[in-house]
């Protein structure tokens, strides 16, 4: 389906797919990861072998799925997509693995959320290209060994530390994706604007870029919201004032903090006097899942100096107080 059709139907996922870079050369930013991965793939091609298993970690929307697709594309191999939560039994995994052909790339998103038995089956499959399928229960159970053609596993996780050591160790190449710099996001927004046929001015795209939380997925989404605003409230051109007004309307603040980011520092400062407070308590107070606070909001807040992790819990930094327009409490007199 065309990009225009996907957009007309408001199909976010299809639009996102259409905006994905298709080759390593098209990937913006992540220079080190791109160079390292390029080398891994090139070497595998020269040897005529499937590349080593690859683990990609980093917050949502930074390009993990995109890179998995590029790995398959650059190897000329089919890609199979699944996710940790979809693999609840070892049997689910055995079914996927037994259908693989030599050189296929298997992408497992949220690989840290796979069930324990499936995880153990995966160790063996990654290392020996073999699994034991257990038939029956109790004393009569038998393990039937099943050979799997050499394949490449690409695992994605928000934090590599969430994976058990033995699983982590079986990846030959591990890459951590970092938040993007505003100038990199600007290039991404400009590229997407071209593909979406949006009329933009350069200070309009740089405004969107600087308020995108360091995240390409958000940059692409905000571009489309700003375009809506430009069409309805202006003459269709994304200028600086248009971008500013639109982003204010969508509650994306000057520094790119979204509603959850702000809720976290707001609760931390106003309700808990700046902390320290445990992550679970903080999550309950903002009405979100602990995982969402820990894996989505926190990495951005920490990296931008609004929040610090201490052994006793999370604390607000002076920048957080200032950003909320509040005065940090003075240190208690000694
Ligand atoms: P993840 O799997 O990490 O959640 P995705 O790979 O789905 O993230 O990326 C989300 C969106 O951001 C995609 O539509 C893609 O177009 C865009 N994107 C991600 N990384 C890049 C990049 N390095 N260059 C250009 N666009 C990117």
Task: Write a concise keyword list for the protein shown above.
15 helices, 48% helix, five-stranded parallel sheet, binds adenosine-5'-diphosphate, 334 residues
Please provide the ordered H/E string of secondary-structure elements: HHHEHEHEHEEEHEHHHHHHHEEH
General form = globular
The spatial strand order of the largest sheet comes to 2-3-6-1-7
Structural class: alpha/beta
Give the rounded overall mean pLDDT.
92
Total strands: 9
Q: Roughly what fraction of the amino acids lie in strands?
A: 5-15%
Q: DSSP helix count?
A: 15
The distinct bound ligands, ions and cofactors come out as:
adenosine-5'-diphosphate
Q: Summarize the main sheet.
A: 5 strands, parallel
| Uncertain regions spanning at least 5 consecutive residues | none
N/C terminus separation: 68 Å
Task: Classify the helix fraction into a percent range.
Answer: 40-55%
Radius of gyration: 23 Å
What does this structure look like?
This is Holliday junction branch migration complex subunit RuvB. Its EC number is 3.6.4.-. By secondary structure, the protein is an alpha/beta fold. The chain is built from 15 helices and nine strands. The strands form three sheets. It has a five-stranded parallel β-sheet, covered by helices on one side. A two-stranded antiparallel sheet has the order 4-5. Strands 8-9 form a two-stranded antiparallel sheet. A hairpin with a 2-residue loop joins strand 8 and strand 9. Helix 5 runs parallel beside helix 6 and helix 13 crosses helix 14. 37% of the residues are buried. The structure holds adenosine-5'-diphosphate. Adenosine-5'-diphosphate binds next to helix 4 and helix 10.
